[in-house]
Amino acid sequence: MWEDLGASLGALIPSVGVLAIFLLVIRAMVLADRKERSQRLREEALADREERERAARAEPDEHHV
Q1: What is the rounded radius of gyration, in angstroms, for the C-alpha atoms of the chain?
Q2: Minimal CA–CA distance to 50: which of 60, 58, 62, 39?
Q3: H helices within 1-65, ranges in order?
Q4: What's residue 65's pLDDT?
Q5: In terms of pTM, does the model score above 0.70?
């Protein structure tokens, strides 16, 4: 009885190992995507701020013309 249980559990070890590797890869992909999205949002916010600053500097000149 116990020998069969040990053999059955031993047969599951490769599948558990593959599952662990799969989960690590998926986690790494999700974290990389999260970082990429965060960086993209920062870059877009910076570009928007620079555009607003350029528009604010150009605006007074347009009123004087």
Answers
A1: 28
A2: 58
A3: 2-64
A4: 52
A5: no
